Amino acid sequence: MFDLSQLQYSSEYPGLMSIVFTVLCSIVLGILLAFTYEHTSKNVSRPNHFLQAMVLVTVVASMIIQAIGDSVARGLGMIGALSIIRFRTTVRDPRNIVFMFSAIAAGIACGVFGYLIAIIGTLGFCFTAFLLKYSSFSRKENLVGNFKIQFLNTVVEPTNLEKNVISDIKANTIKYGILKTIIGSGAKSNTITYNFEAQFRSLDSCKNMVSSLDKIPEVKVSNVTFTNEKFDQI
Fold first, then answer.
1. CA separation for the pair 2, 102 (Å, rounded)
2. Cys staple from 224: which of 11, 77, 147, 172, with CB 3.0 to 4.6 Å?
3. E strand or H helix at 225, and its extent?
């Protein structure tokens, strides 16, 4: 039977069983974090070898912490040695950074022989990641767009704007706001143009909104553009 007392350690001279168990624990936790990332991320593509890096950095972090132990001199020497390395890899997705930090944290916890902290912390992190995947914080599409609505041949009061237009906008967007109101001048003095910004439920909902508003007399919808790079102008 495996005796947990064998894992008791001296910070200066950790035992062989402690070192082996630390490495194995960090590997398992790193794999668990990589599995969680793979099954909760909505990104079609990811940085090259990101999952492998997540597992490996967990092991490396535990090795560094074990090597330092309680020695201040070792810690200062490790800082000097690691400062030679220049990490220039750009991580654009903040979520990827969080997962990489979680892998490092798990490795550090294993390195100081805080196995209970490492295991419970990693399980809690993975559970939260899966929970967020099925919550309202995780959406397949985040369509934010701008469009103009022009009322022709009449000066439309805000109350009429709400009656004729707002209901259609509400039905197809998550939230919206009026950025600017332009009242026509000269030959177009009888027109009002509203510049909207809205977060749409989906691309189809945006098309439905435009189709519905085009059916309203004396209303013209134009310049529907998205801030998302992967969507073009409608």
1. 29
2. 147
3. strand 219-226
Q: Which residues contact 150 (CB under 8 A, 6 or more apart)?
A: 191, 192, 193, 194, 219, 220, 221, 222
How far apart CA 49 and CA 56 sit, in angstroms, is 10
**pLDDT for 89-122, tens place per residue?**
666 778 888 999 999 999 989 988 889 999 999 9
Q: CA 59, 37, 34 angle in degrees (round to 5)?
A: 25
- CA torsion, points 108, 109, 112, 113, in degrees to nearest 10? -140
Write out pLDDT tens, residues 6-43.
454 555 566 788 888 899 999 999 999 999 998 888 76
User: What single DSSP character describes residue 22?
Assistant: H
**Which amino acid is located at 134 in the chain?**
Y
Residue 219 φ then ψ, to 5°: -125, 130
User: Within 10 Å of residue 18's Cβ, how many Cβ atoms?
Assistant: 17
The token duo for 154 is 């009449």
Q: What is the DSSP string of 110-171?
A: HHTT-HHHHHHHHHHHHHHHHHHHTSTT--S--EEEEEEEEE-SS---HHHHIIIIIHHHHH
Number of H helices, E strands in the chain: 8, 4
